[in-house]
Specification:
CATH architecture of the largest domain in chain B: 3-Layer(aba) Sandwich
Strand order of the largest sheet of chain A: 1-2-3
Largest sheet of chain B: 7 strands, mixed
Number of strands of chain B: 17
CATH class of chain A: Alpha Beta
Number of strands of chain A: 3
Radius of gyration of chain B: 22 Å
Shape of chain B: globular
Helix content of chain B: 40-55%
Largest interface: A-B, 24 and 21 residues
CATH class of the largest domain in chain B: Alpha Beta
Distance between the termini of chain B: 32 Å
Order of helices and strands of chain A: HEEEHHH
Distance between the termini of chain A: 38 Å
CATH topology of the largest domain in chain B: Aspartate Aminotransferase, domain 2
Structural class of chain A: alpha+beta
Radius of gyration of chain A: 15 Å
Largest sheet of chain A: 3 strands, antiparallel
Oligomer: heterodimer
Chain lengths: 149, 410
């Protein structure tokens, strides 16, 4: 079990135990519900945008440690970023979890790098990316690109 | 620890090659048997032997191999008949699995008979495969699906069942052993009550046949279904038992070869039972493998298997209850084969990954029984399910791995 420390690093366990921005948001600009029917993860992501900048992100729901900590770290990583930067970060994060070599346009992951260990557990990738997909859906709903999830 | 001294679990384990493999550097502890059991060499060899020296398409062939394959194929049907104690061999229909068996009954028995105002009765502990086929039939016919509730221990509320069974009920479909909770339902009583009102009953035996002796004539059920891979046979093969009278009245499920006696463009005459329901070249190797699996189970004896597994269940329940912060989901007085549980601070998905690191294979998730999860207000559970080859030592490994998991998350 000790080699799983790479996957369940202390910082991940900490975010799981004390998730940041774990709250419902009043009057969000964007909202989406994400669920992973295979493992029962359920997550609601809320966002506020101002002049194309992510002003606030929060989430609620229940999921495994990977899902919850990834959502928590996502909220910290996204605040203050432009829509384009948020999208680029999501893409880069996804690449880091699913592909061997980085893409040339990838941006630095910063603290999100701690989740890279998930790459060795392919069935858990969807846990780590659920919040990001849900954020993406909330953003696209706000922009009118999709009417339902 | 075992009360079945003559039960030689080590000798059984020698028959299952996969049990001697290692997972992540640890000896495999396979406790995901309710999802799919492993196969003994006897099954693997039967399939290998078939392909190496006996195989051809079944039925109608005049050459030697076709006759040999046909004989083995029909021998397997005889084995299944004996296994579930059906009155006749032609009451045994081979399907792709329990799911297809239920869909067959839904489309060929229920759909032509049901109309608006009619009801189908199922229970709150059904697997999705015993929910969705009936929802489809209800959409097609206007009939209504009604659900008998379960109590906090995960037992069927029998009083409610008797109340809900009415002159509107056209069919009862009930699971014999719950895959998510382990509950053994009192199917004999359920069937007797339904029959007293002239209502036929389908029993989903997917989780029952590996663990309990089943006698469809004693039970009196009208249909009984199960899958091969949960009873140590191949995947992609299953069984529908149906009473001859009902099967004869039902139209075919699919059209094609083998299910006909004669075909012209004007008129086709359907074949007799069981072939009417076995269109196309069947899963020949699956059937023959299933026959070998049933021979194997019969040789060990379901009575002995049930006693051994009961010992495992009691031991696992005692061991897991001692773990602080662990809650068992499903504490029916009659249980078979499995323990579903949740931990206070650890999501089932994390439990699954952490136990895997110790070589312990369990299932985590909703077990295709989302209404059960919702009933117990959990998103998912972790489930350890037992088979004839599991040992008390493996349950110790499970319990220690759970404690270790909790330590990591504390």
């Amino acid at each position: 079990m000790d080699h799983l420390r790479e996957l369940y690093q202390q910082v991940i366990l900490d975010h799981n135990k004390n998730p940041r921005n774990f709250r419902k948001m009043e009057h969000p600009d964007g909202f989406a519900h994400g669920n992973n029917p295979l493992c029962g993860d359920q997550i609601d992501v809320y966002l506020k945008l101002k002049d194309g900048i992510v002003e606030d992100v929060s989430f609620e729901g229940q999921g495994c440690a990977i899902c919850t900590s990834s959502a928590s770290m996502m909220t910290l990583a996204l605040k203050g970023r432009s829509e384009q930067e948020a999208h680029a970060l999501f893409e880069s994060f996804h690449h880091a979890l699913t592909e061997d070599a980085p893409h040339p346009e990838d941006v630095p992951l910063g603290k999100l790098s701690v989740l890279k260990g998930v790459k060795d557990y392919p069935v858990r990738v969807k846990c780590a990316t659920l919040a990001w997909h849900t954020f993406d859906a909330a953003l696209r709903k706000f922009k009118g690109e999709i009417s339902t999830e | 620890m075992s009360n079945t001294a003559q039960y030689d679990v080590e000798s059984i384990r020698r028959d299952f090659p996969i049990l001697h493999t290692q997972v992540r550097g640890k000896p495999l502890v396979y406790l995901d048997n309710a999802a799919s059991a492993q196969r003994p060499s006897q099954v693997i060899d039967a399939v290998r032997r078939l392909y190496e020296s006996q195989y051809a398409n079944v039925h109608r062939g005049v050459h030697h191999l076709s006759q040999e394959s046909s004989r083995l194929y029909e021998d397997a049907r005889v084995a299944v008949r004996g296994f579930v104690h059906a009155a006749c061999v032609h009451e045994i229909i081979f399907t792709r699995g329990a799911t297809e068996s239920i869909n067959l009954v839904a489309q060929c028995y229920a759909r032509p008979r049901l109309q608006q105002g009619d009801e189908i009765l199922i229970t709150h502990m059904e697997h999705h495969s015993n929910i969705v086929p009936w929802q489809i039939v209800c959409q097609q016919t206007g009939a209504e699906l009604r659900v008998v509730p379960i109590n906090d221990r995960g037992e069927l509320e029998l009083e409610r069942y008797h109340e809900m069974l009415s002159e509107k009920t056209r069919l009862v479909s009930v699971v014999h052993v719950s895959n998510a909770l382990g509950t053994v339902n009192p199917v004999a009583e359920i069937i007797a009550a339904a029959h007293a009102k002239g209502v036929p009953v389908l029993v989903d035996g997917a989780q029952a046949v590996p663990h309990l002796p089943v006698d469809v004539q004693k039970l009196g059920c009208d249909f009984y279904v199960f899958s091969g891979h949960k009873v140590y046979g191949p995947t992609g093969i299953g069984v529908l038992y149906g009473k001859e009278k009902l099967l004869k009245e039902m139209p075919p499920y699919q059209g094609g070869g083998d299910m006909i006696l004669s075909v012209t463009f004007e008129k086709t005459t359907y074949n007799t039972l069981p072939y009417k329901f076995e269109a196309g070249t069947p899963n020949i190797a699956g059937v023959i493998g299933l026959g070998a699996a049933i021979d194997y189970v019969q040789k060990i004896g379901l009575g002995s298997i049930a006693a051994h597994e009961h010992g495992l269940l009691e031991y696992a329940t005692t061991r897991l209850r001692q773990i602080d912060g662990l809650r068992i989901i499903g504490e029916a007085s009659q249980k078979a084969g499995l323990v579903s549980f949740v931990l206070d601070r650890v999501h089932p998905h994390d439990i699954g990954t952490l136990l895997d690191a110790e070589g312990v294979a369990i299932r985590t998730g909703h077990h295709c029984a989302q209404p059960v999860m919702e009933r117990f207000k959990v998103p998912a559970t972790a489930r350890a399910s037992f088979a004839m080859y599991n040992t008390f030592e493996e349950i110790d490994v499970l319990a220690e791995a759970i404690v270790k998991t909790m330590g990591m998350f504390s």
